Amino acid sequence: MGELPTQNTSALALPRLQLNRGSTTATSGPESKPKKKICCACPETKKLRDECIVEHGEEACAKWIEAHRICLRAEGFNV
C-alpha cells in the first residue's frame, strides 16, 4: 500500500511520448494552437501526477510532473 503504480504509469506515458518523436516533420512550421483546454489535455498523466503528489508530496513526484509537462507540450501547450 502506498507504492507508486510504476508499471501502469510508464505504459500510459510511453505511447504518447513515442508518437511525439515520430512526428518531427510536422513541427517544422509554427506550432499549432492546442485543440483542447489545458485542464482537459493529458488526463492519464494528470491523474498519475496528482495521485503521486497527494500520496507522496511534490518533491517525490518529479518524474510524473515532467511526464505530464511533456504530454502537454505535445498537445501544443507552452509549459
From TrEMBL:
PROSITE patterns: CHCH
Cellular location(s): Mitochondrion intermembrane space
Region described as Disordered: 1-36
Phylogenetic classification of the source organism: Eukaryota, Viridiplantae, Streptophyta, Embryophyta, Tracheophyta
Annotated protein name in UniProt: Cytochrome c oxidase copper chaperone
Family: Belongs to the COX17 family.
Pfam families: COX17
Organism: Gossypium anomalum
InterPro entries: Cys_alpha_HP_mot_SF (IPR009069), Cyt_c_oxidase_Cu-chaperone (IPR007745)
GO MF entry, a single one: copper chaperone activity
